[in-house]
Amino acid sequence: MAQRYGGKYSPQGESDTPQPGTKPEGSFRAARRTRAGGRVNLLFLAPLPLIWSAFGNGPTALALNLAALGLLLLAAWLTREGLIAQEAYDARSVARRPAFPRKIAGSIFTGLGLALAGFAATGGMLAPLIYLVIGAALHLLAFGPDPLKDKGMEGVDMFQTDRVARAVDEAEMHLTAMTEAMKRAGDRQMMARLDQFQTTARDLFRTVENDPRDLTAARKYLSVYLMGARDATIKFADIYARTADAQARADYAALLDDLEQNFAARTRKLLLDDRSDLTIEIDVLRDRLKREGVTSH
Asked: Which InterPro entries does the entry link to (predicted)?
């Protein structure tokens, strides 16, 4: 769906000046360009000429070329999913390695697909073997391996970490549903405003991941409040897509302002509590050192 431009030079004359207390659009601290595009999309296009090679050269060539096409498309899909999984891994300070190494599997399937295509074209074994090794190696060099170890989990209670991971995954699903719903509204400014709130929400997610003990204090924010925000976003998108109701837009923007302020306040409170815990631990350690006669000079 085409989106209506809403800048200050548009016919509607809406200003891009941010509301008091909000961040300017385009300055989102967590915004990063996704790697699951560009080169990965080319992987879906590159094997398509095999369709023409498959027909007109007999049943053996048909089967081999179509099998090669399937393997290369599967490799492209695995690579894209692997890049998405790695972006989620990199975005978190505490994360498990992907359960299945998709990018490495994509490298293997790329080599196998090229080998089958080479065998269909030459009938020999040397050329397919070369295609297999070089194709898999170049794919691995281009996209890299998957993360092969857990991150930030040394000395962490795994039970608590699993609880946090499930809660954050559920919260991310709510944010994804909000983004998908907002696309139907076709309003660029409100999409940017929603992105801004989601950045603030993810700050809270990262804070809880860094200290799983904070989950109890943040549980309502990750579930109840985000679920309500998701439902409100879906209703707003449906109404605004049909009527472009200015009052509904203003009410929804006010809701995002309230949500952002509350999520930011909860994040600051958790960070303050963590700092207080650190201060207490430092004071306790200093007292113990003094009792044992260990002092700094």
From this structure: ChloroindolylP_hydrolase
